[in-house]
Amino acid sequence: MARPTADRSPAPVPDTGTSLFVNGHFPRRRGLVLLLSSVAGFLLTVVWSAHFVDSTIGDNVANTLLGHDAKATPIAGIAAGVLFAFVSGLAGTFTACNVAAFSAVAPMLGADGSRWARARAALTPLGWLAVGMLPVSALYGVVVGLVGTRMPQFSTAAAEPGVLNGRALQSLVVFGLIGLVMVYLGLAALGYAPDPFRRLSRRFPQAPLVLMGVLVGAFLIGRPFPLFRQMFRDAAERHDPLYGAAAFTLQSLGNVLVMAVLFVALAALTGGRLHRWLTAKPSRAAAITAAALITAGVFTFLYWDVRLLARREIIPWYPVAPWAV
Questions:
Q1: Maximum CA pair distance of the chain?
Q2: Does residue 2 have a pLDDT over 60?
Q3: pLDDT value, residue 172
């Protein structure tokens, strides 16, 4: 008679989930998830071409939607400025300062129900994302309307080798902090760091989504995208805080429109199958969430801090693909 074999499967991790980013089911190979995500973020900085996404994509999208050369045509009035703000935000969807916003999609996927129910349910997390994003964008627009002509982003001075001007320093600090926050949240999703929302999420379960919205809104604070800076200078020169708030709010809405459409489409078309796949093994959700956050965080930090310092010749070298120079 054959002897019964022992169950060699790993003991299940207890469900200690505390927030949207941390469900308590950590993947067995979490070290591999961390390594591969970090390498992916680094490689993205190596191959990323700012000229391609800013000019080839961004400028062409803006020119097509506006019907004229966006950079060469002055913004002639408040109505034109409001339209320019939204269009330039949409054109900047895939810029290096905005691509990290797509990491917010992963933790929100996996709802169950009919196709239309999943699509409607997708609007709720997007709404909470907006709760964090829009006040930050509007407040920064007010600040720009009041004091923008004295801010580093208003300057048109060319960057000089070996010098980190105020505009570049602002980008380095803002995106460096955003990148580190994303990396920390990814580490928490893998169980390597405490969940920062453990207590807050008991009363406010949507707090992590609000934070992601705050980070997306904060992209404008350090953004060097040429079309954004054109809008920035227009808002600053008008000295109208209400116009600044409206323009910057529309800029942020344009930034996330593609992400929102993508999220709703994914939720409607694949949400049921995805929900069953994730609930069959909850550690998969943790791995996907962590991978998205760590990849985006490593990319954001390395691109805007380390690679930027190399481009300014403050540090000696950073690997860059020939087409990305």
A1: 89
A2: no
A3: 94
